[in-house]
Specification:
This protein is α/β, with parallel strands linked by helices. The protein is 42% helix and 12% strand. It holds the Pfam family KYNU_C.
């Protein structure tokens, strides 16, 4: 460690290291870290908000699937388990993580495809011809923005933009200000991918409904890191990925949530054989399967669903309240380290200071971070860079320790010392 620098001194370094150890010793979820591959190594992983670590059991689960189910049962596996798996996992996800009752959540496709289906279905469900606007914010994730622009072009609609602050996010007042008789659908992220600001899901949903419109929530940075209550918020639709805090692996399929009240008569736009009421009839014409199953299209990506099962089991065991509490503590310690070490070097915190308003990552900004990130990766310290000059410090509650977080921010501190003192 550095000592006697302009940024810090040995006493502060020692005190913060002691604090990290105390936080780990008091962490009721500390042993869950042992379930994940790589946590026994010195590598510092602060990018679980982009791609989560694999569970140790995943290798055995996949091997067993290949040997016993795929290899042993072969085509019989579809009838015995696989056709039902997207809905079974969806129900577990809803129960353990999303605050959603059974029959409303299903695993299917990529996040982009799922969002496309939901937004198009929501637009189609709005029958008032005066409702020609889709609302979203300027700081939403690129996929969400591109999809809305494309769908608006397909449907002859207008995009109404909320000019969001990159360091915070969309508020209820902003939603009320732009929604009205012309609004058809509102598309928002529950947690802002840059700042980690948590939107008021219940309040915004109520505001959208007051305007007579529907809302589609992107939960990609929420699912598995913070408590979500889709049913209680009366949300209409939601989607999210499973390769971040659910540890499903690169490209693991996304999920779709459709509130029960919308399922009857709702039609999604991508008609495929597996979403038909009787897929093996192979008959003419398309009639969607009843319920959430009608949001399937092509053959379910069974192999891509295997890894997330273990994390869903852990989340159900630990409980999302405990997971969220650790998330708060991790991000609070990250802010503490920023204030002690990074702020004096001119680093800006671009995340809300109120722990109730931020998800499970913080974003810090400095002009040196673009080049620094690659150098950190070379030394097995792995945060996430977001242009123009932000480092996201992602903190997966089940797999990240306070000591690991300490070592990661310490590495950033040391490189900032080198930048300032060549």
């Amino acid at each position: 460690m550095e000592s006697g620098t302009r940024m810090d001194n040995k006493t502060t370094v020692d005190l913060l290291w002691q604090r990290a150890q105390e936080l780990d010793a008091a962490d009721p979820l500390a042993t869950y870290r042992d379930h994940f591959l790589g946590t026994e190594t010195p590598l510092v992983y602060l990018d679980g908000n982009s791609l989560g670590r694999p569970l140790r059991r995943t290798a055995a689960d996949i091997s067993s699937f290949i040997q016993d189910k795929w290899g042993g049962r072969l085509i019989r596996g579809w009838d015995e388990e696989w056709l039902q798996l997207p809905q079974d996992l969806g129900d577990q996800l809803g129960r353990a993580v999303l605050g959603a009752g059974p029959g409303q959540t299903i695993i299917a496709d990529s996040t982009t495809v799922v969002l496309y289906k939901l937004i198009r279905a929501a637009v189609a469900a709005v029958t008032d011809p005066a409702r020609t606007e889709i609302v979203l914010d300027t700081e939403n994730f690129p996929t969400d923005r591109y999809l809305v622009e494309g769908i608006a072009g397909e449907e002859g609609m207008t995009v109404r933009w909320i000019d969001a602050d990159p360091s915070t996010g969309v508020t209820v007042d902003q939603v009320r200000a732009v929604t009205g008789p012309a609004t058809a659908v509102v598309v928002l992220s529950h947690i802002a991918y840059r700042s980690a600001f948590i939107a008021d899901m219940a309040g915004i949903t109520a505001a959208v409904h007051d305007a007579g419109a529907l809302v589609v929530w992107d939960l990609s940075h929420s699912v598995g890191s913070v408590e979500v209550a889709l049913d209680a918020a009366d949300a209409d639709f939601a989607a999210g990925c499973t390769y971040k805090y659910l540890n499903g692996g690169p490209g693991s399929p996304a999920f779709a949530y459709v509130n029960t009240r919308h399922l009857s008569g709702l039609q999604q736009p991508v008609w495929g054989w597996i979403g038909r009421k009787d897929p093996f009839e192979m008959g003419p014409g398309y009639e969607a399967a009843a319920g959430i199953r009608g949001f399937l299209s092509g053959t379910p990506p069974i192999f891509g669903m295997l890894a997330m099962r273990g994390t869903l089991d852990l989340l159900e065991e630990a409980g999302m309240a405990a997971v969220r509490e650790k998330s708060r503590r991790l991000t609070a310690f990250a802010v503490e380290l920023h204030d002690a070490w990074l702020a004096p070097a001119g680093v800006e915190l671009s995340t809300p200071r109120d722990p109730d308003l931020r998800g499970s990552h913080i974003t810090v900004d400095h002009p040196a971070f673009r080049d620094m990130t690659a150098a950190l990766w070379e030394t097995d310290v792995i945060p996430d860079f977001r242009a123009p000059h932000g480092i996201r410090i992602g903190l997966s509650p089940l797999s990240t320790s306070f000591a690991e977080l300490y070592r990661g921010v310490d590495a950033i501190r040391e490189r900032l010392v080198a930048v300032r003192c060549p």
